[in-house]
Amino acid sequence: MKPILRISDLSTRFFTKSGQVNAVESLSMSIDDGEVFGIVGESGSGKSVTARSLIRLIESPGKITAGKIEYRNAEVADEIEDSNPEAVDGDYVDLAALPEDVVRSLRGPSFSMIFQDPESSFNPTLTVGEQIAEAVEVQRRASSNPRSVKSRTSSSAYSLRSYAYGTIMPNRSYVSSESKDRAVELLQQVGIPDPEERVDEYPHEYSGGMLQRAMIAQALAGEPDILVADEPTTALDVTIQAQVLNLLRDIQEETGMTILLITHNLGVIARMCDRVGVMYAGEIVERGTLSNIFDEAVHPYTKGLLGSIPDIGSAGGRLQPIEGNVPSLMDEEMGNRCYFADRCPKAMKTCLEKPADLSVDGAKEHEVQCVLAKEEYDESDALDPGQFEGEDS
Ligand SMILES: Nc1ncnc2c1ncn2[C@@H]1O[C@H](COP(=O)(O)OP(=O)(O)OP(=O)(O)O)[C@@H](O)[C@H]1O
Ligand code: NI
């Protein structure tokens, strides 16, 4: 099967006053149609920037500086081939090469995003129902006229107050009764009690857990091919967390939607994902199936993460820090070595050079950016512990 998303050599940088931050560094991965792909890693490893890059939600001073983000959709490819031939390759459309307005038109029907903080996805001055219904209408326009990218966005009924959040924010109420009925259905589907009444309430009348569900309903209203979920449950209490995850899993199974799930919680990965990428310093350092990662991890960083789980699947399943600091992603400090070498219990002299992506013998999907995929640790080659002294801030 051809992947639905094919990312190659993606780099995203922030050009700040204090220097250039290499938040995502030459990242490649592919996501299959209908799978749940997890990205896990410590805070600051580049997970959110990766997620936002994929749907082109990087704002100044950030910029995607290299790479392709190819999304497979024959209809869309066909539609835009004439206007943007350089972005189309067969059934694939390179989102990184498309003009902003075309990308925007794909948000909703092609991909949508849910965040940790649902307040950012809702306009406080409109009811929850109006906002979900509006997303339904965008989807209806798209499917009634799939050959026109323009039909996917309406310019007259509403304008995008802030598309930075990846969701449609209508600034005036304009929805049909069918769309409103569908909004009620969606609210019901995500487990909002009394959806007929709740549909007319404003975001501030919802509890945090309910608003999180409403955001999922809004993201689902567009019937997206790909849902990007960035820490969708981190802000919720444990019971609600479990409910929201189950809900996402059920909906995924029902619709066959593809999900990219970002989390620092390996327990969440274990219960939700088919495959996992482990991120460190803007790179995916190990990737594979759940069993590759949980039972056959090779990278000392992955092992460190696994060793740091307090109790898998439990509420608090947040990572305990691995000793040492997450590296600064400032360009001038990055050098060209394995970025984990200064924290790695098995660092060797070869780690002062950048390791390649190596496949693990006998495991087709298991790839590791570490020499230990091919070599045994040799203590006589161990790095001098003083090697990186003075580098840390
Ligand atoms: N707007 C910005 N300006 C400058 N640097 C940024 C900006 N957004 C992110 N970064 C930097 O990019 C790097 C990656 O950040 P990112 O938010 O992707 O990490 P993360 O893995 O999602 O962490 P967390 O688990 O805390 O959400 C960090 O060094 C961060 O400081
Ligand atoms: Ni994040």
TrEMBL record:
Topological relation to the membrane, as annotated: Peripheral membrane protein
Cellular-component GO terms for this entry: plasma membrane
Any GO MF annotation of the entry: ATP binding
Domain ABC transporter, first and last residues per copy: 5-306
Main location: membrane
UniProt xrefs under PROSITE patterns: ABC_TRANSPORTER_1 (PS00211), ABC_TRANSPORTER_2 (PS50893)
Location of this chain's protein in the cell: Cell membrane
Entry keyword Chloroplast: no
EC number: 7.2.2.11
Reaction(s) catalysed (UniProt annotation): Ni(2+)(out) + ATP + H2O = Ni(2+)(in) + ADP + phosphate + H(+)
SUPFAM superfamilies found in the cross-reference section: P-loop containing nucleoside triphosphate hydrolases (SSF52540)
Keywords for this protein: ATP-binding, Cell membrane, Ion transport, Membrane, Nucleotide-binding, Translocase, Transport
InterPro entries in the record: AAA+_ATPase, ABC_Ni/Peptide_Import, ABC_transporter-like_ATP-bd, ABC_transporter-like_CS, Oligopep_ABC_C, P-loop_NTPase
Pfam families in UniProt: ABC_tran (PF00005), oligo_HPY (PF08352)
Subunit structure: The complex is composed of two ATP-binding proteins (NikD and NikE), two transmembrane proteins (NikB and NikC) and a solute-binding protein (NikA).
Protein name in the entry: Nickel import system ATP-binding protein NikD
Species of origin: Halovenus rubra
